[in-house]
Write a structure and sequence with these properties.
- The complex is a heterodimer of chains A (162) and B (128).
- By secondary structure, chain A is of the alpha+beta class.
- Chain A has helices at 30-38, 40-46, 132-144, 151-161; strands at residues 11-13, 19-26, 52-59, 66-73, 78-89, 93-100, 107-117, 120-128.
- Chain A is built from 4 helices and 8 strands; from the N terminus they run E-E-H-H-E-E-E-E-E-E-H-H.
- Chain A has an 8-stranded antiparallel beta sheet.
- The N and C termini of chain A lie far apart (50 Å).
- Chain B is elongated and about 85 Å long.
- Chain B has 2 domains: 10-73, Orthogonal Bundle (Arc Repressor Mutant, subunit A); 82-121.
- The chains are: A alpha+beta (162), B mainly alpha (128).
């Protein structure tokens, strides 16, 4: 059993009405973080968190290449995302489009950067939506992949957006 | 269904960028309307209008201090928004914890490989 050095929790902020920024530092050099982030059999080990089982991790990692992730959530339904890579700089930066298949009109552009300092790597994921409604729906999708306890919050948001 | 009035809840109250500026300014501490007007560079009637909306959803509280009305932030009213984002944040926290496990294995594998290569190099007659 390998000891796991946790580097803290995810930090999610909303820098503007149309953006989501997710950051986290890892206790590992960036070529390993990049590998974990982009290799299908490794993606399958982390992308669902503990909310389900990943069924598809397709990664054609080159500009113009497609990607698709799908999982079966613990509640039994499928959640899937897909998109296209726009820019791929190994170990540094990936820019891709991203569509939650539950809301196919809401295409976002996500920019993932990997920066290393003293053997530790900070990953930052900036998700840029075209509208606030799409951005909010994206945040809601995080709940749909998950928990009943979140449903009352979802309802509040739905009421406020109606 | 008609759009809910802006005063319905905290979500709508903070949807307006200037109201978020006011919240940011009040996060630094209690302020009078005049101080907010000076900080934000907005006309006083506009600031008062936004403060009224924020008061109606209890995002800010007010008290009289002599001739001035002092406004302060009520953090509890922001809680529904925090909870909403926090659920999404939790998903990412779970993902990153799983990444920690994968990364620990990859680091260990690299370390072993480096040790073996180092040994082979030594055996190959480097003089050690």
């Amino acid at each position: 059993m390998v000891a796991v050095a946790s580097s803290g929790t995810a930090v999610v902020t909303l820098p503007s009405d149309t953006q989501i920024l997710i950051t986290r530092e890892f206790d590992a050099p960036r070529h390993l973080v990049y590998r974990t982030y982009t290799t299908p059999e490794l993606i399958k080990r982390w992308w669902t968190g503990d909310r389900g089982k990943m069924t598809i991790a397709e990664v054609d990692l080159r500009p113009g290449g497609s990607w698709r992730y799908a999982m079966i959530a613990n509640a039994g339904f499928e959640v899937a995302f897909h998109g296209q890579y726009r820019e791929v700089v190994p170990d540094e930066r990936i820019v891709s489009t991203e569509v939650y298949e539950g809301a196919p009109d809401a295409e976002a552009v996500s920019t993932v950067t990997f920066s290393e300092k003293d053997g530790r790597t900070t990953v930052s994921i900036l998700v840029q939506h075209t509208t606030k409604e799409h951005r909010d729906a994206h945040i809601n999708s995080g709940m749909e992949a998950g928990l009943q306890e979140a449903m009352d919050h979802l309802e509040q948001v739905a009421i406020s957006l109606a | 269904m008609a759009r809910a009035a802006t005063t319905t809840d905290a979500f709508n109250a903070v949807a307006e960028p200037r109201r978020r500026q006011i919240i940011d300014a009040l996060a630094a501490g209690e302020r009078s309307v005049n101080e907010l007007v000076a900080t934000l560079g907005l006309p006083q009637p506009l600031v008062s209008k936004h403060l009224r909306v924020l008061r109606e959803v209890a995002l800010v509280a007010v008290r009289d201090d002599g001739r001035q009305r002092m406004y302060r932030l009520n953090g509890n009213a922001l809680r529904p928004i925090y909870d909403w984002v926090r659920e999404y944040e939790r998903l990412w926290a779970q993902r990153f914890e799983q990444m920690d496990v994968v990364l620990a294995e990859l680091k260990e594998a690299e370390r072993r490989t480096a040790t073996i290569e180092g040994t082979e190099h030594g055996d190959g007659g480097s003089g050690k």
